[in-house]
Known about the structure:
Layout: H1 2-13, H2 27-34, H3 39-51, H4 62-78, E1 90-94, H5 101-115, E2 120-124, H6 132-143, E3 147-149, H7 156-161, E4 168-172, H8 183-193, E5 198-204, H9 209-218, E6 226-230, H10 239-248, E7 252-256, E8 265-267, H11 270-279
Parallel strand pairs: 1-4, 1-5, 2-3, 2-4, 5-6, 6-7
Antiparallel strand pairs: 7-8
Helix pairs in contact: 1-3, 2-3, 3-4, 4-11, 5-6, 9-10, 10-11
Amino acid sequence: DEMNDRMLSLASKLAFPGKNDERGTPPLYRELLSRGLSRRAAGKLMKIIQDEDLEANAGQDSDRTGDTLKRAIIRSVASCSSGPEGEKRICAFVGPAGEGKTTTLAKFAARILYRDKKSLGIITMDDFRIGAVEQLKIYGDIMNVPVISVPADGSLETALSSFTHLDRVLIDTPGKSRSDGEYVAKLRRSFRESVPVRANLVLSATTGEEAMEDAVRRFRPLEYEKIIMTKIDDAGDYGCVYNVIDLAGRPVTDIATGQQVPRDIRSVDPERIARLVVDREIPRH
């Protein structure tokens, strides 16, 4: 589109060391595209490199090129807001169907219980997917955590009132198709009728660029504060992590690296994201 063309034009005009290709595209820009970044995201990073004078020595060898790209990513990611400060006790996991919300919630539950030593309750609003409630109840039994199911016509506020004595509450939500235009509006009403609920957007690293952009836009009314990327182990490149940060203006704070509960979840910061995208280095812990 026009925005991407302008970004590409800007990138092509930057005078970085290294040989441009036949289209006049500079090597740093090609490096970003080769790591799975969208043209929009790559263009934004090229502008940061230019504006903040990060291009010194870039392109002379692969290590210096990588360092330049990582510095640009760190500066860009660090500028993203995590949302307004406030009550963080109740968190809902939202996102399209098939992104791994339920398994991700279970990993967070284990982290809260065993690492943070906090008491916890789980609420599931997903009575659409066959086996969803049963899956969470199994996790609840294993971790000795109470699980309440809220049907489509039920009250989230009533369920939350049962957990006022607990430190944290995690809420699983159903994933719906794009065609269900009322779904996000219903969730928004449910969240606003109860005590403050923080939404975490869950997206798969294998989701295509168009579908990811749609999800970022569609769930924006829920005012999600952070993004959790799942199925990192199934992705060929990790530029998608930066792409979604660029689209949403919100940080990716955690990545899921497999199906194992609780171990396959990693917290990430700007430095880890930069290494993930540029060096393809998945954090071990």
